[in-house]
Amino acid sequence: MSEGWVALVTGAAGGIGAAIADRLARDGATVVAADVDATRLRDVVADLRTRTGRGCAYPLDVCDTDAVESAVARVEREVGPIAVLVNAAGVLRTGPVPALSDADWGAVFEVNLGGVIRMCRAVARTMTPRRSGSIVTIGSNAAGVPRVGMAAYAASKAAAAHFTHCLGLELAGAGIRCNVVAPGSTDTAMLRSMWTDGNDAADVIRGSLDTFKVGIPLGRLAEPVDIAEAVAFLASDRARHITMQTPYVDGGAALHA
Q1: Nearest residue to 77 via CA among 21, 126, 129
Q2: How many domains does the chain have?
Q3: What is the mean pLDDT of residues 170-185?
Q4: Which listed residue (58, 109, 153, 248) is catalytic?
Q5: What is the pLDDT of residues 61-109, one digit of tens each?
Q6: What is the CB-side half-sphere exposure of residue 88 using CA atoms within 13 A?
Q7: CB atoms within 10 A of CB 62
Q8: Residue 170 sits in which domain range?
Q9: I need a surface site. Which of 86, 155, 182, 235 has the fewest CB within 10 A?
Q10: Closest Cα partner for 16 from 83, 84, 85, 89?
Q11: Is residue 209 a part of any domain in this protein?
């Protein structure tokens, strides 16, 4: 892609989303960073602009259909045609199924699935007439492997992944590729929020027989940049014949599930 192509990244204010924004900017993209956290988003974009001279902050709640439609229209009008969409916005609610409230389920599905649907729907309308584009959704290895205490998150990610693949089938004729990247345990604030009762990275890497959780064969947590590298490849012309796929970036934790 030519220098300055536009990449719209949701969930860009931290963790995996911020790493993706940075990686795509280093690949020459003008990154439109979107997130509900406007304060942290400004800091991420200020850093991008300092290092690359490009980057725009678009505070956005992916649960708001009107806001999503308006934001995509503004990007197309003010920044340029969107070449790449990365759905990295996500939330987590953990706990046994009987303990999860309707509000917990609603919050997880509204962002992790609903946000992906809203963003893809709006961006697909702009990409289709141009007959080009790449969409990458951040999934999870939990979407393919059952996890104790993570039913809501896993189910939402599984739904988002299958939606993205279905969209890829519909848009293939227009030359638009739709893929999913499925991270495993990645060193982010979201992962660390799950560490209770003295648990830490070593416990994650080792795994847990009590919860039927395999450890990480490569012996390390992923870093956000590991996920960003996979996204950058799938978003690029180097992956021009890859669509409807889900590479797992989890150090082997899913055992090729």
Answers
A1: 126
A2: 1
A3: 97
A4: 153
A5: 999 999 999 999 999 999 999 999 999 999 999 999 999 999 999 999 9
A6: 29
A7: 25
A8: 6-189+224-248
A9: 155
A10: 89
A11: no
In a domain, 100, yes or no: yes
| 108 residue type, one letter | V
pTM of the predicted model as reported, rounded to 2 decimal places: 0.95
Is residue 58 annotated as part of the catalytic site, yes or no?
no
% pLDDT > 70, the chain: 98
| Residue 219 domain flag | no
Q: What is the pLDDT of residues 106-133, one digit of tens each?
A: 999 999 999 999 999 999 999 999 999 9
- Alpha helices of the chain — where are they, by DSSP H? 15-26, 38-52, 65-78, 102-109, 116-130, 151-171, 189-192, 201-206, 224-235
Amino acid at 140: S
How many secondary structure helices (H) and strands (E) does the chain include? 9, 7
In a domain, 208, yes or no: no
Q: Which two tokens stand for residue 34?
A: 């979107």
Amino acid, res. 36: V
